[in-house]
Amino acid sequence: MNCMNNEALLEDSLRMLFTIYQTILKINLTDDTYEEIGENGEFGYFQRMSQWVRGMAKAGMIHEEDLEEYLAFMEMGLLKEHFQNSSECISCRYRLLTEEGFRWVSMELRPSVEYTDDAQIVMLYIRDIHDAYVEEQQHQKELEYYSSRDRLTGCWNRFYYSDFCTSYQERRNRTSGYGIMAADINGLKYTNDRYGHEGGDRLIVSFAQMLVDSFGTKGCCRISGDEFIVLFEDMSEPEVRQRVETFAERLQQQDIPMAAIGYAWELRPLHMNDLLKAAETAMYLDKQNFYRQHQKYLR
Known about the structure:
The protein is α+β, with helices and mostly antiparallel strands. The protein has nine helices and ten strands. 48% of the residues lie in helices and 23% in strands. A six-stranded antiparallel beta sheet has the order 3-2-1-6-5-4, sandwiched between helices. A four-stranded antiparallel beta sheet has the order 8-9-7-10, with helices on both faces. The longest helix has 28 residues, at 188-215.
């Protein structure tokens, strides 16, 4: 009776395992052999584990972009060394060829209850994680995207600019020049006081759209409430000057220019923030000129 109960318990356990894992192997790292465990508990015996690993690779079962990592993870000598020193489970993600195409799977290895120093027996489990993993990756991309975007305007935000400054040091010597245009919206406080913050938001969004229409989405950043910058990478000084002057002409065609602007350019600035300060200095001069002509907007 106990024997029958044990067999039934084993069958139930295997059924549960196979609802999670598609492949289960029992591997003896010591003599490089393995057995494949079937859903009913039967064992299929195979001679060489390293042959199974190479066979999967040669048959094109592993996506070419994941192949190097897969082969390194399944290197027999490294697996032996790991389990000699640790009983922790290790895992690897890769894309496996299926009838529908490549799907992400997770391969886990953990010591068997039969593991000894003389017979390094470990269990290998492979499960399909494609749908959950793709969803997780998409969610991560969305988080990264929105963490760098200004929610009101859709432009890049100050976090993006900070990352740009950090990565700039790696590109500093591989460019034909950097420019920054600083822009500060005119009369935002006046608009907020007269039309409420909804009116102010509309002004901010309108100016952001004007920037994007003129410069595209790549370098436009909103770095604070009424302050924007436009980043010009790998451009000569005449190119930057022409683009800024064209934008300035567009502003001057308005009855009341929406913003004061200024720009700075250097071939290889030591720090991007130094370049931004120079652009802001030029912008403040433009702002003073605006206030001389439109004193009601003075804050």
